[in-house]
């Protein structure tokens, strides 16, 4: 148990504080431990206090070069000891995806800062969570790291909401994820982008891989370079200009207009056939069943996904070095599947690294 707690507590990387003063200036005030200049610049960009449109986003999260960031922003009430500050943001960086965990912890840190006006108490709580996985305080609330299971974070979004918006077209998203394609999602509201993108990896539950999620990306050269180093991803944007960047996506989701577009270069790999229709119907039927919860819908999709993956088994053989299973393309061709199914299984084998290259 102690080992599990230690492993959990080692997920946090740092804590930082950004303030907006009464003159409207936004400054990176404090952090523990130190941070790099590129990461600090990124966090200032993500923090809504530097945004021109003055909209307050209480909580945003995202990923940059394998570091997750969670930013909680509050307005300072007149009663606070912080007299020269109008707003501040608490930034937590970590190795794991768990928005609920870090949002809960940040709220406690916010209350501490509003009360004491000094980062010292925040640092004490941060170190307590880092070393023991717990911080307790009478007036500011208690936080226990192990209350926040990763699986809960994976299941927090609603697949049913996605299907009710996109219906049969959800199969395009499922196919793109199965084939490890690049999905870009646009909506002018960051909250809508985050809610939608965080749910998508659940369509390929057998992988349980949320490292593909980049829920808040700016059209910034450094961020785009980091993103393009990933083979397949889900990237969220609030700038519509991303729609005219086909170099960034295979599938473009305009969430505001409920439209999904497949990029010309991805059309061959994403050709839809009878198999996709079957998958689409299963997704829609399961999601529209009022008796089923989101996790049951995910389970239904996952069973179908495993069935598809098992379709590759009869055409697989152990590679020459005996290291892994590879696809025997000749055997696959002999089965005379419909062209779209054969094409999909071939690209799926490529995504699962089952091709002999």
From TrEMBL:
Subcellular location: Late endosome
Membership in a protein family: Belongs to the DENND10 family.
Name of protein: DENN domain-containing protein 10 isoform X1
Entries under InterPro entries matching the protein: FAM45, Tripartite_DENN
Organism the protein comes from: Equus przewalskii
Secretion signal span: none
Classification via PANTHER family: DENN DOMAIN-CONTAINING PROTEIN 10-RELATED, PROTEIN FAM45A-RELATED
Pfam families (alphabetical): SPA
Coiled coil residues, start to end: none
UDENN domain: residues covered: 1-357
UniProt KW keywords: Endosome, Guanine-nucleotide releasing factor
């Amino acid at each position: 148990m102690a080992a599990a707690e230690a492993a959990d507590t080692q997920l946090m990387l740092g804590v930082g504080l950004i303030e907006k003063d009464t003159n409207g200036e936004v400054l990176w005030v404090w952090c523990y431990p130190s941070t790099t200049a590129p990461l600090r610049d990124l966090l200032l960009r993500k923090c809504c206090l530097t945004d021109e449109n003055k909209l307050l986003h209480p909580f945003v999260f995202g990923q940059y070069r394998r570091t997750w960031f969670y930013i909680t922003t509050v307005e300072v009430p007149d009663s606070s000891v912080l007299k020269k500050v109008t707003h501040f943001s608490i930034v937590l960086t970590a190795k794991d995806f768990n928005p609920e965990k870090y949002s809960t912890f940040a709220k406690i840190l916010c209350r501490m800062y509003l009360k004491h006006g000094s980062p010292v108490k925040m640092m004490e709580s941060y170190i307590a969570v880092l070393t023991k996985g717990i911080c307790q305080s009478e007036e500011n609330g208690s936080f226990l790291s192990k209350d926040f299971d990763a699986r809960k974070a994976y299941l927090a979004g609603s697949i049913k909401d996605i299907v009710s918006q996109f219906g049969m077209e959800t199969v395009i998203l499922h196919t793109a994820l199965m084939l490890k394609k690049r999905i870009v999602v646009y909506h002018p509201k960051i909250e809508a982008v985050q809610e939608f993108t965080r749910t998508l990896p659940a369509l390929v539950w057998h992988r349980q891989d949320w490292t593909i999620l980049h829920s808040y990306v700016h059209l910034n050269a450094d961020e785009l370079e980091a993103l393009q180093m990933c083979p397949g991803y889900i990237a969220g944007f609030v700038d519509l200009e991303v729609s005219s960047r086909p170099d960034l996506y295979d599938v473009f989701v305009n969430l505001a207009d409920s439209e999904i577009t497949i990029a010309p270069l991805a059309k061959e790999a994403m050709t839809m056939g009878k198999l996709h229709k079957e998958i689409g119907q299963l997704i829609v039927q399961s999601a529209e069943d009022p008796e089923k919860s989101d996790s049951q819908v995910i389970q239904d999709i996952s069973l179908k996904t495993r069935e598809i993956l098992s379709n590759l088994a009869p055409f697989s053989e152990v590679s020459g070095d005996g290291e892994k299973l590879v696809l025997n393309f000749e055997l696959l061709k002999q089965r005379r599947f419909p062209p779209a199914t054969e094409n999909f299984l071939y690209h799926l084998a490529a995504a699962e690294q089952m091709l002999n290259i």
